Amino acid sequence: MTDLPGDPTGGLDEPEELQPAEGTLRLVGDGDAYDVAAWEAATAAVLRKARRLGDDAPDADVWSVLTRTTLDGVEVAPIGQQADLEGLTTAGRPQRVGAWDVRAQVEVVDDKEANEAALQDLENGATSLLLHLDDEGEHDWDVLLDGVLLDLAPVVLDRPSTEQVEAFATFLEGVEGALHPGTNLSFDLQTLEMLHSRVRGDDATARDLFAPVARRGFQLGVRALLVDGTALHDQGASDAQELGWAIATGASYLRLLADEGFTVDQSARLVEFRLAATDEQFPTIAKMRAARRLWARVLEASGGSGEMALHAVTSRPMTSRRDPWVNMLRGTVAAFAAGVGGADAVTVVPFDEPLGLPDAFGRRIARNTSSLLIEESHVAAVTDPAGGSYAVEKLTDDLAVAGWAELGRIESDGGSLADAARLGVKARVKEVAAKRDAQVADRSRPLTGVSEFPNLDEVLPERPHKPHRYTHHYGWAFDDMRAEPAGRPVFLATMGPIAAHTARATFATNLFAAGGVSVEAAGATDGVDAVLEAYAGQPVVCLAGTDAAYAEWGADLVAALRAAGASYVVLAGKPGEKTVTDVDDSCAMGVDALGFLGRIREELAR
Fold first, then answer.
1. Residue 287, H or E segment
2. Residues 417, 190 contacting (CB under 8 angstroms)
């Protein structure tokens, strides 16, 4: 497997009469062609006003300021140009036409209760089911799927054990009538072996059961195998790592099935891919589109053809236990991106899942997210709506190339089922997870409700226990701090009138709250004595004011607060000769928030 084939323009050439002149950005028609330099000038003016671009910086620097780089090193530009289509490596479009399959997640602890939830979902907009089975005990499939029209509604499993796969297959073999071909026995050899899930009681390994399960699915006329990229995503993988891993696993399945006498086309029809959709809208759209191109290339290289069955699940690591209602927004963006990217089925994880077993409201919001996107926003009315967008086509190609490179690394280590390849993938994922954690720590990757705009007074809804699922939540470190709030507050020594100190006071208050630390503010003040009058002996104090106030009476205030009992003084801003120097710590944009909060909590605990 070497270069990916395809028209370097992705089949996106415009008719000659519609092509914009060199150096223009065409939006609609002849009257909407804008000179690139004019766009740069207008954009630069906005960025300078926001202090994101220096007054002396050339206008062309707006591209570097607004372009962000993903964890895979892929650049996401603010806007695309026709030149972005030059030299593209891949081509291809999503094949889904019309609405996607609204796949409702059902947590199965009690079979009867899960059945009621499943029927409620199917009667109110869901078109298929994703069952997450409790690992404890056996399940009564007749009860669990009672009333479910299995010829109309596909049923798939979420990371089942080998015993659960076999029990599901046995149940389906006893069903009278046809089964929906989208049903999947959901045997995921890769995840079973990587996560050491339990196997059948007679000590048969997951590898031993692979071929028998594939044959049972083939005989039933349903899918049998799952490639679950979300399992790696949940451990912190980047988009390209998830793509490369999933495609490499699919290739390994093709090889194993070929050894059992299956043709490539037969094998392809047995496999479904599951990928994570995040609230990073354009990278998610590109990931879904890139996945199809990569799998098409693998099938072509293997001498076969066929379409990719693609199931998108909104990311669990991006969700938060704190301020869980924000998860509704994250899930909406992710579902939109997955649908636009061409996913065949989309599962929106209920917003309250981080709290425990989702309730009826959480499940309703989850399924209605897709229903609203499809029925009211008409997102699915156009096939591949992002196709032709210069920026999206470039991003799709870049991500496909990055995923292909990861596939190459895995193949060079012996393929996805080899121990060396798995160790290599785990090491690379660990590096990416650490890089993401560092971005979360300094809040360059902000998490609303967690590291930004936290609410210390929120009352979280209670939810019952749910089946365990390992997830590396992005805001886990902040959540750990919030779970055990600091025993004492920080005194916020606000300097001057409210209008003068509000910006830094708000910044510091939100920063402290992200770590479970409350503040007691002095309010409007006009000098050292006014601040000391409000001071109640807190060991940690934080000065919040303007640079001018710091320079004028900041040093005197620090000395007075120390004399009054403050043992640790923090400056909201950057210490220096023009502000205040005699402080123990400081906080400003870009600070390592987790490190800073850890120090503050240690001082408060003394």
1. helix 281-301
2. yes
The residue behind tokens 């649908």 is 339
Residues 586 and 596: their CA atoms lie apart, in Å, by 8
29's tokens:
């028609």
Task: Please give the Cα distance from 190 to 213 (Å, whole number).
Answer: 14
**pTM of the shown model:** 0.91
Distances (CA, A) of 565 to 331, 505, 558, 600: 48, 21, 11, 16
Domains of the chain: 16-81 (no CATH), 101-428 (3.20.20.240), 484-605 (3.40.50.280)
For residues 246 and 430, what is the distance between their CA atoms, to the nearest angstrom? 17
Dump pLDDT digits (tens) for 415-465.
999 999 999 999 999 999 999 999 999 999 999 999 999 999 999 998 988
15 phi, psi to nearest 5 deg: -55, 145
Q: What is the mean pLDDT of residues 29-52?
A: 84
Residues in the chain: 606
* Residue type, position 201, single letter: G
Q: What H or E segment, with its residue span, contains residue 228?
A: strand 223-228
Q: Cα(14)–Cα(453) distance, rounded to whole angstroms? A: 45
Spell out the residues 6+ positions from residue 376 whose beta carbon is closer than 8 angstroms to its own: none
**One-letter amino acid identity for 177?**
G
**Rounded to 5 degrees, what are φ and ψ at 99?**
-65, 150
Q: Are 183 and 223 in contact (CB under 8 A)?
A: yes
Sequence-ordered strand ranges (E) for 307-458: 310-314, 345-347
Angstrom distance (rounded) from CA 403 to CA 232: 14
Name the strands in the sheet holding 184-187, side by side, starting at the edge strand that comes first in the sequence: 155-157, 128-133, 101-108, 345-347, 310-314, 271-277, 223-228, 184-187
pLDDT in tens, 493-529: 999 999 999 999 999 999 999 999 999 999 999 999 9
State pLDDT tens for residues 201-234. 556 788 999 999 999 999 999 999 999 999 999 9
- The pLDDT tens digits for 27-37 are 555 566 668 88
**If phi over 0 gives left and psi between -120 and 50 gives alpha, with beta otherwise, what is residue 590?**
left
pLDDT band at 406 (very low <50, low <70, confident <90, very high): very high
CA atoms within 13 A on the CB side of 14: 18
Strand, coil or helix: 414: coil
Query: pLDDT digits over 243-283, tens only?
Result: 999 999 999 999 999 999 999 999 999 999 999 999 999 99
Contacts of 286 (CB under 8 A, 6+ apart): 239, 341, 392, 395, 396, 398, 399
Q: What is the pLDDT of residue 5?
A: 40
Q: What is the dihedral of CA 588, 591, 594, 597, to 10 degrees?
A: -30
Q: Nearest-CA neighbor of 146 among 105, 186, 180, 116?
A: 116
Answer whether residue 83 shows pLDDT above 80. Answer: yes
Q: What is the DSSP letter of 452?
A: B
N-term to C-term CA, the chain: 60
Are residues 265 and 307 in contact, defined by beta-carbon separation less than 8 angstroms?
Answer: no
Two tokens at 146?
């009672």
Q: Which two tokens stand for residue 213?
A: 């399960």
Angle, CA of 383, 385 and 94, to the nearest 5° = 50
